[in-house]
Amino acid sequence: MLIKNSFKTKLIFSYVLLIVASFVLIAFFLDRNLSENSLRDIQSSLIGQARLIESQISPERLKQQDTAYLEALTKTLDPKIECRITIINSQGKVLAESRKPQEEISLMENHLYRPEVQEALAGATGIDTRYSSTLKIDMLYVALPIRQDHEIAGVLRLALPLENIERTLSAMRSTIILGLLLALGVAVILGSLLASQTIKPINRMIQVSRKFSEGDFSRRIVQHSGDEIGELAATLNKMAQDIEDKIREIKTQNQKLAAIFNSMIEGVIVIDRAGHIVSVNPSIEKIFGFSKNDVEGKVFLDAVRNNDIAEIIKSVLGHGKPLSTEITLVYPVHRIFEVNATPIFDNEAVNGCLVVIHDITEMRRLETVRSDFVANVSHELKTPLTSIKGFVETLLEGALDDKKNNRGFLKIIQEHADRLDRLVDDLLSLSHLESKEIVLQRDDCHLYQLVQGVIPGFGSQLKKKNIEIKNELPQGLTLRVDKTRIEQVFINLIDNGIKFNKENGFVKICSRELDGKIHISVEDSGIGIPQKDIPRIFERFYRVDKARSRELGGTGLGLSIVRHIVELHGGNVGVESTEGFGSKFWFTLPV
Q: Which of 74, 167, 412, 439 would disulfide-bridge 98, Cβ 3.0–4.6 Å?
């Protein structure tokens, strides 16, 4: 509002100033011209009157200094011409003064050196305007020489007060000032009207511009004039449209970047040039267990207590070169990360750092598992192959003719070949299950009858250890599963329960419904599993007692196959065991 009023006031003031300046110049030149013309006219009039009076003065009496004659003459003419008349001899002495008594004339100072007297004595017409110390007013003096026989006998001087001229000029100045005041009043009124008309479109532009400053670029300035204000309005409208388009484009890009930033699996941290955290994505929040709002604006080390990452950031900010390294994080989680830090440049100067943290824990674990798997497969294959090769060489070297032992050697070779066959079958089965390409052939299956059909296959093993097997599954329990795959699960779990059981022990199969799933357990009274081995019991080739497992013909893949089959059905597996007191393997299946 202050800006608007200030501009309007300036506009009105400019109108008034223009008129005042014009009037002052006009009044100045008019006053000067009138003063000069008035003075010139009075001078001409005085000169004419002086010549008339000069013609009436007798030069002889002037020479004789006949003051009585001269005084009578001046006193007679003064009222007629309304001028002060002074007669001066050639030596500058005042002989007669129309407005002074004779006794005062003799006391008057010599006028020889008065400017107008000097000019008259020189034979010219003397004119001068000055302050009269005698009359205490400004006077106009005109002096004429009085000649006698080509000689100057004296000087006639007429003096006229300039009061009348000043009075006339004052009246004229008053009239001019009054006119100026009237003109100023008109100028203020007209200036206000003109300024209001000029300010009105500017006010509209100011109001719309305020909306622009508040971020609302949808408004437009309506101005149809073709002058500079109309051009300014069109320019502001185009600027608003361009800014609105740019903001819309930037918002779209920011939304895309934010979606990418927030959905990245990798953790991302943006650091400014001072080492403060600018932003982090949700993955970083999960990794380090903090909230984005709690760490933004903090120094990295204050938010994340990890010197390795802090040193990487410091190096990138200091040298402006990207760095990549692998670190192991112990706190708050034990993970392995690949850290990639890249400098952010602004006009070729390092303005910050982008840190991308990729969790490679699973990849390293898989590499370890793969390495272990290759080593385990190689070991599992090498053991029977070494035995087969050794007995074949023994037979070829002559033991084939040893009728007492040759059949025993061949039986051992057959056992190792069977073991290799089982190992290859289990590997193929496990590979097929892990490929995720298997399609389950689901059908209604009576689990009680399924287990009853599996038990006879273990008759000799049960009889050998005198183990009792109990099928306590409900006879009406029916689930929609892949019968062949679930049958393999029961076979593997019952087989384990028998192999690692004690003499005169038991194997019990039972179930219960829990959280919308059927919880099935295979419990044995065997040797149990040490607590340290339980987390890895379902891994491939993992054995608690490797020597005994091989002795019993195990491949180390049975439980891993169980886990994959159950997970394909949407369930999970687990084990509860105390060393020396048996084990309970369980798995769940959706109802």
A: 74
